[in-house]
């Protein structure tokens, strides 16, 4: 079915993103594991959306403000995830090549998270809430 194909594609893209992150850490030339802290950003990125979805219902005028606040916090989390490896490279804690790999991994992972919510967040009978 279409949802299963979407789930397989999202899993594959998530694996590619994590591979970029691991390459930025584990290659012998780089060898520093500080960039793994961006995993925290991956885990906390969907939390504002979940809270806004739980708190607001669509008939309420305040739900729009709650949703906008969730978008604001999510944007801050995503920007922080991109800024973190750049700051690490600026202070020479990691090399710039590792920073590039981590940034590529960030782009793939966050697009995967966005794709997950676009595919499974519609609220139809086959939604992410079943997972």
TrEMBL record:
<dbReference type="GO" id="GO:0060400">
    <property type="term" value="P:negative regulation of growth hormone receptor signaling pathway"/>
</dbReference>
<keyword id="KW-0333">Golgi apparatus</keyword>
<feature type="transmembrane region" description="Helical">
    <location>
        <begin position="33"/>
        <end position="51"/>
    </location>
</feature>
<dbReference type="GO" id="GO:0010008">
    <property type="term" value="C:endosome membrane"/>
</dbReference>
<keyword id="KW-0472">Membrane</keyword>
<keyword id="KW-0967">Endosome</keyword>
<feature type="transmembrane region" description="Helical">
    <location>
        <begin position="94"/>
        <end position="120"/>
    </location>
</feature>
<keyword id="KW-1133">Transmembrane helix</keyword>
<dbReference type="InterPro" id="IPR007262">
    <property type="entry name" value="Vps55/LEPROT"/>
</dbReference>
<keyword id="KW-0675">Receptor</keyword>
<protein>
    <recommendedName>
        <fullName>Leptin receptor gene-related protein</fullName>
    </recommendedName>
</protein>
<feature type="transmembrane region" description="Helical">
    <location>
        <begin position="71"/>
        <end position="88"/>
    </location>
</feature>
<keyword id="KW-0812">Transmembrane</keyword>
<dbReference type="GO" id="GO:0032511">
    <property type="term" value="P:late endosome to vacuole transport via multivesicular body sorting pathway"/>
</dbReference>
<dbReference type="Pfam" id="PF04133">
    <property type="entry name" value="Vps55"/>
</dbReference>
<dbReference type="GO" id="GO:0000139">
    <property type="term" value="C:Golgi membrane"/>
</dbReference>
<comment type="similarity">
    <text>Belongs to the OB-RGRP/VPS55 family.</text>
</comment>
